[in-house]
Amino acid sequence: WKTNIPSYSIVSFADEAEFNLLSSNPYVGEVSQTDKKVNDHLIELRGLRPNTRYHFQAKSFSIAKAIGRSENLTFVTKTSKITPIVSDVRKNSITIAWSTNEPASSIVEYTNMKTGVRERKIIDKKTTAHSVLIENLDQDTSYQIETSGINEQGNLVESKSGLVARTLKDITPPDIVSLKIENALLPGRNDLVQTVITWKTNELASSIVEFQAGATKTGETLEQREEKKNLFTTDHSFVLTKFRPGGVYQIRAVSKDEAGNIGASPIRMIVTPRETQSIFDVVIRNFEDTFQFVRKLK
Fold first, then answer.
1. Which band of pLDDT confidence, cut at 50, 70 and 90, is reported for residue 277?
2. Which of 186, 184, 201, 181 has its CA nearest to residue 251?
């Protein structure tokens, strides 16, 4: 504050609980600077409690008992800075935790350091123990993270500084489970087999089927393959109509996740069903057998 003549500086203060307006001296604390008279006064109050309303009065005097006083004024100290930590990191999520000395909401702002996209997650429920799960993040990516909250007095609670956390890189191939292979002759066709191949994966992945005729392994991959491109799912299915009846085939299910990790089932050996005889085939065979029998009698 300023005074029109050089004078000494005094500040009297008390927090909301200790302030007593009915008392002759409603303030319980006082800080003074009496080594030099000044026109521009500056007093620093130390050791105050955070997030607390204080009453204060500025005073100045040049001669004893001639004291100038301001009106009673108030201010609210800032809340204590919070210190967030990274409590859990996964390939698509990060969990941030921190504590506050009084109930407050939870606010996390996070910025993708590759794309610059900034997002925010808010939990309005006020608590002293905070844990916020940030989901749907890009894997193997660094994020700048800032935490804050609003306490019951409506004051902003902030972190001392931001932190950086990096999501994990996905190096785990998808698990292939519940593999089923079913064969049947095509209706109305005895020369072609319909093969239905289904399986499940524990994460989104592509669908690939490798196959080849015969029982001999020729390499790391089978000779032929079918693939559903640009389709990631956990439920996979193929219908193949390339197998011949009564044949031996090798089949393997393959899935590749979005990170490029490839999972494959063991090679399964199957024998397709044999073609059934039609009535016409039976009549012709019976005729041939009878004709051969007659020729033998002659």
1. very low
2. 181
